[in-house]
Amino acid sequence: MKATWNGHTIAEAEKDDLIYIEGNWYFPPASVSQEYLRKSDTPYTCPWKGVCQYFDVGKDDDWSKDSAWCYPEPKASAIEIVKHSSGKDFSGYIAFWQDVAVSE
C-alpha cells in the first residue's frame, strides 16, 4: 500500500505490515519518508489511544496541515486491544488523511 501527497509517494509498505484502526491504515514508521513530515503543535488526546502527535505533510513551501498523525506512546490498554486484532503494537505507526491518498 502507499500514501501519496501531490504526486509524491510519502509512505509505502506491504498491506500485511500495516495496521487498520477505526477506518485508517497505519504505516510502520520505517516505511514513511520523514522528509515529508513536520511536527504540528495541534493538541489531541484520544480517550482510548492516548496522546496523539499530528504532522503537517508537505515539501518546500507547500504544506497540508495535520494530514498525518501517530501515537508515539499509546495507552497500554490500547496497545493490547490493537494487538488482539492485529498482532502488532501500533506505537509510532503513522496514519494519513485529508490531502493524503492511501491506496493499494
Percent of residues in beta strands? 35-45%
Strand order of the largest sheet: 3-4-10-9-8-5
Q: What number is the mean pLDDT?
A: 97
CATH topology: Metal Binding Protein, Guanine Nucleotide Exchange Factor, Chain A
Which residues form runs of ≥5 with pLDDT under 50? none
Largest sheet, in brief, is:
6 strands, antiparallel
The beta-strand count equals: 11
Question: Shape, please?
Answer: globular
Following the backbone from N to C, one meets helices and strands in this order, namely EEEEEEEEEHEE
- For the record, the CATH class is Mainly Beta
Would you identify the CATH architecture?
Beta Complex
Distance between the termini: 4 Å
CATH superfamily: Domain of unknown function (DUF427)
Report the total helices.
1
Helix-and-strand structural type = mainly beta
Please state the CA-atom Rg, rounded to the nearest Å: 13 Å
Briefly, what is this?
By secondary structure, this protein is mostly beta strands. The protein has one helix at residues 76-86; strands at residues 2-5, 8-12, 19-21, 24-27, 37-39, 45-46, 50-51, 53-59, 62-70, 94-96, 101-103.
Textual characterization of the structure:
The protein is mostly beta strands and 104 residues long. The chain has a single domain, classed as Metal Binding Protein, Guanine Nucleotide Exchange Factor, Chain A. Helix content is 11%, strand content 43%. The protein is built from one helix and eleven strands. The chain has a six-stranded antiparallel β-sheet, with no helix packed on it. The longest helix has 11 residues.
